[in-house]
Each structure stands twice: as structure tokens, then as C-alpha cells.
Amino acid sequence: MDSASGAGAPDPNGGEGPSSTTAIGGGSGGGGATAEGSGSASAPPPSRYESQKRRDWNTFLQYLRNHKPPLTLARCSGAHVIEFLKYLDQFGKTKVHVTGCPYFGHPNPPAPCACPLKQAWGSLDALIGRLRAAYEENGGRPEANPFGAKAVRIYLREVKESQAKARGIPYEKKKRKRPTPTATTVAENVGGGRSSGGGGEASGGGAATETLSFRCLPPLYPDD
């Protein structure tokens, strides 16, 4: 499989903050852009996730352009996505011990070694999630999404298992907390006192009801 020609792709693990947004257009009389109509507010800056997703998407498009031979997005497959992930290993910051290393499987090596630095599994997993969303946001069909291909999922699972053995850090699947139901008791009917004739509790409208509210938890990624 052909490889890329050394494009200067940014490190996905780099702690870049959200990119700044540039206002388009400006008045010629020394002022900034004037808002149309009174009370119109400027658009809020994109979130950190959206900024990172845009940078990841631009990096992947640049990788396709610099590929030999150049690739178009329509011809991109799961195999090309895996090739892209392997290409990003050169920018990795996670020490992954090889089989012959004396620190193989040691979570806290006492001394440095010559083992390579690679992208951590958690970073690759999050990257694929962002690129998968960006592909569909840019007009790609979900059924043709190369980032959701079975081959990509298998590759990520193999990276997860191999890094767990090499680093001695098991990636245990974090259990989602079960949503705790919050019972909201409704006050009994004010007029539902004791009946005057039978001496029993009045049953018409006096039963208490409960409303269960569930708190949705976001997906959790293991820390690397």
C-alpha cells in the first residue's frame, strides 16, 4: 500500500486550544463589522470539540491530497483510514514497549528505553469518532462512511489489546452508572379526607403518583 509523502500533519495529541475565528468583512470607516438590525449578537465561537473536529478533518483531507497516488474522498476505504492511523504514529507521545524490551508489560518502567512512541489507543479511538461525524456532516453517506468500517473497528481493538499488554495497563471497560430514578411525589388530593359514612380512606383521587426522571450519561473514554 502506498504511503503518504510526509505531509506536515499536526499532532492529534497536541494540546491545541480552539482555533480563533476571524470576522469576515469590515466597515471602511475604521470600525468593525456592523450588526444588521438592532440587538443582533455575534455568533458564539465553536466549542473545543468542534474546533478539534475541524482540524482533524482538514488534516485527513491534506493526507489524501499528499498521498501517492493522490486519493479522493469518494475512493477512500477502511484500509486507507488504517493507513492514516499508522501514519500518525510518528507524532505519537505514548511509549509502547516491544516484545523484547525488559520493560514489556511494566506500567512504570524504572529507566528509559529505546521503544518507539506511538499514538495511544484512546486518542485514536476519539479521533475516529470525530472523523466519522465530520464525514457525514460534509455530505458523506452513513452507509459509505470509511471511518465506521469493520476493518477500522478490528484495527482499533487490536491496538487496544496490544498496547494493554505492552504497557501493562489493562483498558477496563468503564461501566456506565445506572440512572438513579428520582421520585417526585405528588401531594395527595386536598379534598380526599376520610369519608364520613364508612370510616375508610377516600379512594377518589387520593393515591400518590411518581414521576421518574433519568439522567443520560455521556460516553466515557479511558484516560491515557
Explained architecture:
- The chain is mostly helical.
- It has a domain at 48-167: Orthogonal Bundle (DNA polymerase, domain 1), CATH 1.10.150.
- The protein has four helices and four strands.
- It has helices at residues 48-66, 78-87, 121-137, 150-167; strands at residues 94-95, 117-118, 182-183, 212-213.
- The strands form two sheets. A two-stranded antiparallel sheet has the order 1-2.
- The protein is globular, with a radius of gyration of 28 Å.
- The two termini are 30 Å apart.
Search tags:
single chain; 224 residues; mainly alpha; DNA polymerase, domain 1; two-stranded antiparallel ribbon; two-stranded antiparallel sheet; 4 helices; 4 strands; disordered N terminus; disordered C terminus
Second-tier CATH architecture of the domain at 48-167? Orthogonal Bundle
> Which fold name is given in CATH as the topology of the domain at 48-167?
DNA polymerase, domain 1
How many helices in DSSP terms?
4
Residue stretches low in confidence (pLDDT < 50, at least 5 long) are: 1-39, 183-224
Strand order of the largest sheet: 1-2
Elements, N to C (H/E):
HHEEHHEE
The biggest beta sheet reads: 2 strands, antiparallel
Strand content: under 5%
The overall pLDDT, averaged over residues, is 73
Spatial shape: globular
- Counting DSSP E segments of at least 2 residues, the number of strands comes to 4
What is the radius of gyration? 28 Å
- CATH class assignment of the domain at 48-167: Mainly Alpha
